Amino acid sequence: MIQNMSVNQITLHIIKTLKENKKAEFETIIDELQPYDIAQIYETLPDKHRTRFLLFLNTDLLANLLEEINKEEQLDILNKLGVEKTGKVLDLMDNDDLASLLNELSPETTEQLLSGMKKEESIIVQNLMNYPDETAGRMMTNRFVWIRDYYTTREAVDKLKSFADFAETLSYLYVINQKRQLVGVVSYRDLLIAEPQDKIMDIMYERVISVSVTEDQEQVAHIIQKYDFLAIPVVDEENMLMGIITVDDIIDVVIQEADEDIQKLSAGGKDIDFDTKAHIAAYRRLPWLILLLFIGIVSGSIISSYEDILSKAVALSFFMPMISGMTGNTGTQSLAVIVRGLISNTINKRIVTKVIFRELLVGLIIGATCGIIITLIAYVWQGSPVLGFVVGCSLFFTLIIGTLSGTIIPLILYRFKIDPAVASGPLITTLNDIFSLFIYFGIASAFLKHLM
Amino acid sequence: MIQNMSVNQITLHIIKTLKENKKAEFETIIDELQPYDIAQIYETLPDKHRTRFLLFLNTDLLANLLEEINKEEQLDILNKLGVEKTGKVLDLMDNDDLASLLNELSPETTEQLLSGMKKEESIIVQNLMNYPDETAGRMMTNRFVWIRDYYTTREAVDKLKSFADFAETLSYLYVINQKRQLVGVVSYRDLLIAEPQDKIMDIMYERVISVSVTEDQEQVAHIIQKYDFLAIPVVDEENMLMGIITVDDIIDVVIQEADEDIQKLSAGGKDIDFDTKAHIAAYRRLPWLILLLFIGIVSGSIISSYEDILSKAVALSFFMPMISGMTGNTGTQSLAVIVRGLISNTINKRIVTKVIFRELLVGLIIGATCGIIITLIAYVWQGSPVLGFVVGCSLFFTLIIGTLSGTIIPLILYRFKIDPAVASGPLITTLNDIFSLFIYFGIASAFLKHLM
């Protein structure tokens, strides 16, 4: 009935069933919807209908709803549910989603919520929360299917059936030995092709690609992307199988990491989105801006130390913002290439040398081209061939230096395990500003008597 | 045997089997490896071993290898394989991967490669290549499992088994009617839970989330991310099922789109990575730099029109780069928030108003804070309260304008269906430069007699 309706039409329909208290009809509609749609509908629902909406959902759907909704709404829903139902719903939530919800709450609220849950479920979540943020251990779920290597294919399929409702992915079955160590993997595809009496140990892959609990989430994403996996197992230092990470969480990681790179490169604050409050957004952005302000003062004091030259040849000041702007820009261009390249390349000495040499060449080409153009323009505009030469020559050198600093600085930071994106945006701008002013006024001083 | 070896050790082992011409042993090793590993090993293999390596692989593995390897190596392998084997291998390749390989080749080479393939396979690939780049139609694969609604669960499972080797994903079975229109979807999970005699029409979801062949790949990624799907069906305007897109391709799209955003925001050239040749990288970056050069000339001419003020109060030039730098930076910060926000938010009037108002507030807070700081610094440094006031006041206004232009311009571009990232990086820098100079010298002119 609802298959061709838009989400808005369905919402109206649902409001009708809520008003008329028709639970059966409500359930028929909800049954056809994806968790994401249910969350969308709940968010647009007027407040007065929300309580009954939650009352009509069973605990499974409530858990799904909580997984899809933002933090504030999650807490609001938990308050509306009451203590007893909250415990049941939290038991059913994916433990990685639950851990990230609890992470935002005060220790008291966390304590209180955990105490309403089944003991074994609450222990699992607490264990998860012990791993640092953005590691594999923190993201993994324990809702996977494990089997033993002496199972037959038929036994494995039976286990898969009994786990169908519970598991986050049915694509892979992980094979463990008696110590719970990961010794193999069988895909659902392999099971389909195998005969019922085949032994798992004969059809399983023994070379299992896995990640450690302490692995950084970006690295996990990189591995899943390379191998095109739907999930990857997570093991501890003794190769014990601790959980799995599924591809849907990895897409979120990839987007989050790209957002972070962009925010860092634009010297913006972390975690600013459309919902962030103004004072929080301002507070997160200000540190970089104040830093840049002081860098501006440093540039200013360099300029002031050349006050004498400037007052003798005011025309020099016309080209000052252009030179520092261009140097900054070419540096950012190189930086962007390096930061994203570091994500998808395995770095070794050969590649580093190659890239630095490549960027040096790029700097030479760009520097020569822009240098010649500006020489001609400055000459025609100001009628002084010497000024043209000073400006063009300066731009040539500053562009080469800009390109190289945008290449070498992030590589050095990477080498010392500092995220190149965070430090090098403002760092490169500063250094390039200072370099460019020194070069410009240095060359200008040398030709001063011809400039006047 | 090889499960605990590194890829390097395995490579040495493989070279040994190649040297000794031991095909059976070679196959035992390869059998345990992922396609990505096989490609990695092939790429590090010395040239003299490559021909036998290719000879030892069966056509299935050759197709896998081609899917994982870069364009240059793909062509080299095809040359090494010879005409007849090439046809067979191309038949087995995923048609989306094949389409993107052929896309890079000359029409003659494409023609030649297609003529070696099975007729039906080559027609499918050619159809795919008719869709524009970066659309759903271009990315989809026809290797999926479709069933009819009158099937029983048992029949569906049988079909799934017969497709196990061929299909790119076994997670969903798509249900079509006699006109090949998409009418439902059944997940493998549903099949596991259902009874063998259950009819598909009774267990299928009728509200299928699908995308149109013409849908932009970024939008497809957005839908898959929201719904946490492993694949999504692609339909034409009559709702006929044309293909599916799988989540592994979507991860690549997300990374590619993030790279593009970063390159655009940093005014860098498209498609520059570690392997791009220097002259090509320079050629791709130069257009923006030359544009920025001319923008610099515009700024320069604005400054030159205030030459008189400048020569009377040289100290004004000390703060010039700081003011334009800060304005540019705050604009880029806002821009980054908007560009990434547009990806994950559904845009409507309410949200746009909210975000603009938020950024205005942010601009006020940032402007006031930085304005006060620089007033004090300029006063202490140059000993002139009027200069402090002029600089602080200018910074206050330029930061507000910078924030607003970084917010409003990308939103306007988005409204007119222009990608906000591409046009607004340099555009915002330009406009902010010009605004900031006018405001700075405007305020300075008003207070000129107090400045001297």
Automatic annotation (TrEMBL), chains A, B:
Keywords: CBS domain, Cell membrane, Magnesium, Membrane, Metal-binding, Transmembrane, Transmembrane helix, Transport
A Pfam family recorded for this sequence: CBS
Membrane topology designation: Multi-pass membrane protein
Keyword presence, Membrane: yes
SMART domains in the cross-refs: CBS, MgtE_N
Domain CBS: 140-203, 204-260
UniProt-listed Gene3D superfamilies: CBS-domain, MgtE N-terminal domain-like, SLC41 divalent cation transporters, integral membrane domain
GO MF annotation terms: magnesium ion transmembrane transporter activity; metal ion binding
InterPro entries tied to this protein: CBS_dom (IPR000644), CBS_dom_sf (IPR046342), Mg_transptr_MgtE_intracell_dom (IPR006668), MgtE_N_sf (IPR038076), MgtE_transporter (IPR006669), SLC41_membr_dom (IPR006667), SLC41_membr_dom_sf (IPR036739)
Main location per the UniProt record: membrane
Any one GO cellular component localisation term in the record: plasma membrane
Keyword Metal-binding: yes
Quaternary structure (record): Homodimer.
Family under the similarity heading: Belongs to the SLC41A transporter family.
Stated name of the protein: Magnesium transporter MgtE
Originating organism: Niallia taxi
